[in-house]
Amino acid sequence: MGETLYQIGESELLHRLARFAPTGQFDDDTARIYTGGKDLLINTDVLVEGIHFCKDTTTAKDIGWRCVAANISDLAASGVDKILGITVGLIAPSDTPWDWVEEVYTGIEEALKQFGGELLGGDCSQGEQRLLAITALGTVGPARLHRSHALPGDSLVVSGPHGLSRLGLALLLCEPQVQAVQLPEKLKQAAIDAHQHPQPSLKALRSLEACKPKELAWRAGGTDSSDGLLEAVKNLCKSSNCRAIIDPTSLPRASEWPLGSPWDNWCLNGGEDFELVLSLPPKWATAWLNAYPSSQAIGVMEMGPAQVLWTDNREEVNSSPDFQHFQQ
User: Of 13, 22, 43, 199, which one has the fewest beta carbons inside 10 Å?
Assistant: First the structure.
């Protein structure tokens, strides 16, 4: 028997699949389609029951909302201008209640009304497991953010705090870590909202566009933190051939966020935060930090191999992710 997906992991899988596509096509979560007019951004995301959602933590309506938010987050992290719409591929067992499907599409409709775009079509099929495959389309804006656009000397900045969605999941599942500590009610509610009803960073993107110093070019490295803050920074490093240096005292923690383990690990690796993670020229970064209240500087980019180091001891940042694709 040959190698399994568990053995090679998601990163190596994508590396191997990249040979089937044009050079650099797999360096970002979205693809740019050159039309001769207003170019398009397109991306696809898959949500699988038991992996990305379950009935114990997420209602059917929230599932619909989350699948739209996840895709639009990728578009925002690529500098989308106008969101055109989505297609939906639905797979479900034949005994799935119609009410469940209707609620999912109600959540989709509500998210599109808030963020923009229309339901453009899709497909459906019977399967053993519920699954939603979303393809989202939008037009390219002036800030064409891309993972490969980071440069040494850039400031590394994020649009907001991290770890809230992971904390929300822990609260909904009554995990021991959150049962053993007194958390403010405001923090708990914010965490549950972040998990069940995430918000893509469209307002952060518009603020970023508005505050760019006129003398600077539209060049910025960007991604989102759907797979966790540390993974987002690693992806910037890999695609741009840079090294990131992160300040441990500047991790983007929510207000009244506890210190220590597992809290710092959730901040770095919790995932599904859907915040922008950007590598910006320092002058642009400063302007954005002043213009967008929840944004925060967490480090810098410099020349060197594609790795993430701490500022204090220059050791590699090696936190354990809570979730891995193809885990057993």
Answer: 22
Full set of structural domains in the chain with CATH: 29-140 (3.30.1330.10), 147-310 (3.90.650.10)
pTM for the full model? Answer: 0.92
Query: For the packed helices 185-196 and 60-76, what is the interaxial angle rounded to 10 degrees?
Result: 80
Dmax over CA atoms of the chain, in Å, equals 60
Mean pLDDT of 210-233: 96
Cα separation of 119 and 138, whole Å? Answer: 13
Place of tokens 């007019």: 37
The band of 257, judged by pLDDT with boundaries at 50, 70 and 90, is very high
- The CA angle 69-133-189, to the nearest 5 degrees, is 30
Q: What pLDDT shows up at residue 321?
A: 60
Report CA-CA distances (Å) from 280 to 18, 236, 237, 307.
27, 12, 13, 18
